[in-house]
Amino acid sequence: MTIETEIAAVAPIADAMLPANATPLEKAILTAELARLATVDPRVIATIWNPATCPVVLLPWLAQAVSVDVWSDGWSESQKRAVIAASPIVHRLKGTLGAVKRSLAAFSLDTNVVEWWEDDARRGTFRVEINYHDGSPIFDPILQGQAITAVRSAKPKTRVFTTRAVLGARGPLYVGGYARTQLLAVAHPFVFDATVLRATTSMAATAATFTSATAHPRAP
Predict the structure, then answer these.
(1) Percent of the chain scoring above 70 in pLDDT
(2) Which among 49, 89, 94, 182 is placed 20 to 30 Å from 153, CA to CA?
(3) In the prediction, which pLDDT does 184 show?
(4) CA angle, corner 144, sides to 111 and 87, nearest 5?
(5) Nearest-angstrom CA–CA distance, 103 and 84
């Protein structure tokens, strides 16, 4: 089918869609657009609304259609699809702990949400912990900032939260022991007693033997 044939096939549809006072230019534009849409496989439309099958080039528009709050063209394809897939449930649960956790899960980060009653913190607050350890993504302040922005959008507006990056380290642990002796000496301050004359009289006797020896020089 040639272009002219395709345009002639949709021209009656364009005439029926436009008002009677439409200009020839308006009719030509609508006819050309209908002819272009006629070449699209209808099955593609079903894939566009699915974040798992939508063409990569159309992902930004799909994100806008499902009201993704935080978006970056620098994300990987899997990251973009995960954020889009999480957006509908996040909006349905917005203002709850479930929405906060789902918004964090879309960023493929190891996170914990600690509420105030779990950590003896100020009432009504919570803390978001982002864990970095072996096998997890390296510390990325930009990605972490985007995750925090997503939490701020999903949380209840009256709730205050803090964030903490937890960096794990692995290494050898050495344990040893030794014998120890401790001597504790306590020195109390000297206290003067009241002036009191005290005396003690003691009497004793003993037998003593004295021996006297005189040494004279030897005569020549």
Answers:
(1) 81
(2) 49
(3) 74
(4) 75
(5) 10
User: Are 178 and 140 in contact, with CB atoms under 8 Å apart?
Assistant: no
* Cβ atoms < 10 Å from Cβ of 87: 24
Q: Report, in angstroms and rounded to the nearest whole number, the Rg of the chain calculated over CA atoms.
A: 45
pLDDT in tens, 73-88: 999 999 999 999 999 9
Neighbours of 100 (CB within 10 A): 26
The domain limits of the chain are 1-39, 40-167
Higher pLDDT, 217 or 11: 11
Distance CA 17, CA 39 (A): 19
Q: How high is the pLDDT of residue 185?
A: 72
Query: Rounded CA gap, 130 and 132, in Å?
Result: 7
* Structure confidence at residue 91 (pLDDT): 94
